[in-house]
Amino acid sequence: MARAITYKFKGQPRKIAFSYDKFRDIYEAVAAAEGIDLTAFLKMEQQVAMTAKRSAAIKDFRQKEFIRFGFSDIYLHKDDSEL
Fold it and tell me: Is the pTM above the cut of 0.85?
């Protein structure tokens, strides 16, 4: 089953192919497509995970940081017919 990600980067709509073999999640895939280095982000995400009292804190952190990077409307589509 083919997977694709649609998203907007700085207001421009984009579409890329996605595979769990190459990326851990859709956020890493879109960052790689735009050439963004996530080294500092991943370190901070680990710190949030170690200190957070609830699991939603990690998701909130990730979403807010990607908005700060310029991403919006990030969606994973299971096949091309959903686009």
Answer: no
